[in-house]
Known about the structure:
Number of helices of chain A: 17
Shape of chain A: globular
Oligomer: homodimer
Radius of gyration of chain A: 27 Å
Amino acid sequence: MTKHVTFKPYEITVEVPDGENLLRAALQAGVHINASCGGEGVCGKCRVLLESGDLQSSRSGLLSDEEWDLGYRQACQSFVAGDVVIRIPPESLLDRRALTRRRGGIGLRSSPIDLEALKSQGLYNPAFQKKFVELPPPSLADNACDLARLEQGLSRRHGLDNLAHDVFMLRKLARVMREDNFRVTATLDFAQRRSRKPRVVDLEPGDATQEHYALAIDIGTTTVWVQLLDLAQGKVIGHAADYNSQMSYGDDVITRIVFSQKEQGLQKLQRSVAATINQVMHRVLKQHQLPVTKISHITLAANTTMTHLFYGIDPKYIRLSPYTPAACHTPPVRARDLGLEVPDHVFIYSVSSVSSYVGGDIVSGVLASGIYKDPKLTLFIDIGTNGEIVIGNQQWLACAACSAGPAFEGGGIKFGMRATAGAIEEVSINPQTYEPMLLTIDMVKPKGICGSGLINILASMMEADIISPNGKFREDLNTPRIRVGDEGREYVLAMAPDTQSGQDITLSEADIDNLMRAKGAMFAGYVTLLENVGLKLEDLEQVILAGAFGNFINIDNAIAIGLLPDLPREDYQFVGNASLQGASLLAFSRELLEEERRVADMMTNFELSETPGFMDQYIAALFLPHTKMEYFPSVSERLKSLKG
Amino acid sequence: MTKHVTFKPYEITVEVPDGENLLRAALQAGVHINASCGGEGVCGKCRVLLESGDLQSSRSGLLSDEEWDLGYRQACQSFVAGDVVIRIPPESLLDRRALTRRRGGIGLRSSPIDLEALKSQGLYNPAFQKKFVELPPPSLADNACDLARLEQGLSRRHGLDNLAHDVFMLRKLARVMREDNFRVTATLDFAQRRSRKPRVVDLEPGDATQEHYALAIDIGTTTVWVQLLDLAQGKVIGHAADYNSQMSYGDDVITRIVFSQKEQGLQKLQRSVAATINQVMHRVLKQHQLPVTKISHITLAANTTMTHLFYGIDPKYIRLSPYTPAACHTPPVRARDLGLEVPDHVFIYSVSSVSSYVGGDIVSGVLASGIYKDPKLTLFIDIGTNGEIVIGNQQWLACAACSAGPAFEGGGIKFGMRATAGAIEEVSINPQTYEPMLLTIDMVKPKGICGSGLINILASMMEADIISPNGKFREDLNTPRIRVGDEGREYVLAMAPDTQSGQDITLSEADIDNLMRAKGAMFAGYVTLLENVGLKLEDLEQVILAGAFGNFINIDNAIAIGLLPDLPREDYQFVGNASLQGASLLAFSRELLEEERRVADMMTNFELSETPGFMDQYIAALFLPHTKMEYFPSVSERLKSLKG
């Protein structure tokens, strides 16, 4: 017996077995619902509205009587008992279109990989190459096997000797060689890490050297990006992204590791992310009308947990002290063995990780930004739940992860949300009336506050002088905007009638505490790293911001709250999705593909909780911008001038 | 709707879909039926007897009215239309037990691989080795990934650096390391041909170095052999065999290649032989109560066509002039990808072939017999449908395949059969009465004549002087044993009442012609090879007989009919199943595993049909023993003494 489940507002209907879990049904439908606790029912984020039909739901204390009567249910605690119509409430919606939204004007220019520079440096040399050969047809006087004939041709025409082969290539060898009268194009892999022998991975009839493509993939905890690379022309020709469908099993790496320990949990997570990759890959290939057979290989970067989950490697000990990953390096793996819908010959090469919380995404970013070969002392910083920090130059690299918490991604903040439509992003507070002026993403009714918005609000509150350096609201202000709510004192950003949910949107002192802890952890992280190598904040010559968040951040405001160091703005640089850029670099340059292990090995990992001085630095940083104002001279000056 | 099919005399019943082909039903039941024509219905060998029930059979001219009325049907032309009981007639039975039957006394001693000699030569050095290490548990001060910890341990304890890894090992790494407190045994592969880096393929908790096994496999066209090797003790501890279940698709390589070109034909043949290997492998492991997880790798030898079929490589052009295989070398392949039921980490290493008809089985035999490092000029000969010949010494090797036809395997001979129960094997003919004395395998009523029996009968007829050197019966003999049958003059070996089938068993002049062509092709083959390198028959110093057939052959008789060269009997040596022995050598010795490609490359292939002098030699050899009696001095002398 099957039942129908319709998800509104998408109007997507799926057929599921009687008794199916509603979260699973949503997964099947491709409908995203936040779910932080891996299905245990404790986070309460996956609430949905039952519009009609029969659900068997168990009820936890996370839903009030009123909500229950209105039809709110936790999707993970609900099982389909009849045809049902479900509405995903606005606060659970994740809008895929938001991912590719183009923005401008707020921040600095980004620095994508410069392929022309790569070519001029002689580094454009893809590890996979296609070689065309015309072979003499066999005769009774020369009836060597097809493979020997191919080897002789590649040796004579291209000086390639001592080749290795893929059995899947051998399976089509006889047919392909005769399809265009022994004129063939061989795809060679010069990258096999466990070997110096070039490997023949694929064979096509005729001259196919101009049809050579690869994919670069970035698996983020939230988002999966795929870039389509043209290796014959040497350029990036397309990209696509989607939410990582593992989101249904938990918002962050920790809940996913917990889920991976359940029966079949690891397999489900592995298949889930493979399904997302397949979907995004097919989309980008379709956009460019390319058959998947023209892909020679895939390069990949991801954080340590995402890499473990995609390769099906147990991540259990990543979250248990002393935080050891199973493997920071992975060998090249046949992509089909990981569930990707690509030809048999396609292998995946992935960027090495450094530790449990400094992953291949960061190493990839270090590669993309080139700091491992830059003489300048550079801070590379990726702000997120686990803010990652790399400091160093061409001679040494130190790195650490800060458990900043999910504040900058909207987590732990009552009205925090991802940067999608309705998120309050830009704020200005009138220092006389204390009334705000708000701009939301897509300029629709506000729904919550995104990470860059939180930074901007905090900086604006500092400028309007409504909060003290300790993050508390001034008590002498007479305005209805500041009041005492359920969780203590709060500032009302948007009133109920103006919001999507019909609730006031506020920022409380508790929220501000969370934000200060997050920014304090990041600041303490890089100062501690510097101190441990005998350097000071003033020695920094350059800051590189990586990650999607970096693209939207207002540098002045981030410095104002003490998140980023007070360097001249021209010493700042964005690299955008540096992880994805690094992955595509590996496909473009054999030298860089070989260098990635060296770069990962070069990065010394610090466990901040074990590093002398970190706790002191952290406590000192729980101020706006900092207890030591001399760290932030330009901020100090601006605040003074405003008060002046 | 399903139907039941019962096969007698095995009393095996299987359930099949309505309308299933009877040959397929037999395959499913594990019941062997000869079938030479790949299911086309033209050979008539797959006849079975319908005892009860409903078959839909089409009838060809191969069954007489009487046979049809008795219930004989061709299995490949029959489809199950109800529950049926089928009897496999004796002439179709292949008795598995016959394969492992021990014989003695007829021939010379065989020379199995001498492991002690290998050890004393320093060649005992398996390419796969297990290494035990005790690792320091991780701490916050040392929380490198498990893989790095393992690498450090292997480096410090065993001096192993620069290791490669298998992703399947990484999947269990975290669990296994913690199972016995970071005491682990790593299985290392030093053989990866496309690399010099040792590869960690498996990991077990605790010290498992004493539990290390491998499998050596010989895929013959007819029979699949599996040897179980103990690599910790350095010995062969078991073996098992079964008929290659591809037999149901055709008796010989040609019919199988034809079948492989049908829709899904190659896949069916691939799965078929994989199923046989799985069955034999599980049997031998069960006998020794070993779990399959203790197998580190598999080595394999097979003829060129069998290798193509097992690896799923299209063999189409092997049978079409100019006879080119797709590939004479195969890379190491994950055994699971070929359908073997072994752990993920198990790779298969197979012996290279030389040409379409000099395959990995022969190269393996050359390795096992050591002629590639012997100063003596040696003839290595494997007698079968395609008799393969290798001539040479430590400096050079020449080889060729002779299309001898299937006479020595019982094909093309009216009462020819495989060497199973009831096959006439030893014969003596009374030179006065011309009455025969017969001994059959297992001493049961005769059913036919096996290959070694045919040689013995022919030699006995020569000694009794009832045939002339041209292979014709003397016309002046007055005996009812010699008569004119349907196919011309024939000798009656066994009369109807004494035989299993109730028919006379005879050998006709047409049969003798076939035998002379077969032995003539072999003789012409090795003489032609010798002449083409400027040598003569007298230069031969040693003869090595390989193949199952070689074990049962009577050397004196084989020389008497002109099949083997007239060398002193002490210069002859048997190596039995040299292909299987060579495969196990590869597992025991990394040096030999690396040498096999060199040996294959060292073997110069001659296409006899294109080689000057072959046809003349062939025609000259169509005599008993030969037109030039000086080639066979000892035979000449013995015949003279008998007549004298």
